[in-house]
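Researcher: Please predict.
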Amino acid sequence: MPRVIGIDIPGNKRLIISLTYIYGVGSKRSEEILEKLRLDGNMRAHKLSDEEIARLNSLLQSEYVVEGDLRREVQGNIKRLITINCYRGQRHRLGLPVRGQKTQKNARTRKGRAKTVAGRKK
């Protein structure tokens, strides 16, 4: 298992798929990274040389916001929404869907126990 920016990526999978195990790297960004480094996406990740892993690490750290930095940024954005008390912040605080989904059915099972949304008359 090669270790890229502190994350063990699966060595038996194709490189283009293995890179998506890094938080903040999807399939499109994975293609972009491999194109910049001129690596074959169909190559297995365990066949990467130490020099190629070092190039991959340096590219990810210099040009992209991934892993810990991205997680901190997202959490900071959520905290900001909560502190300014906007609608989205209120929904985050209550653990309810933020982006306009219905709450009668699936939102109740999304995060564990049922949460009362509103008193419903029968």
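Model: DSSP finds six helices and two strands in the chain.
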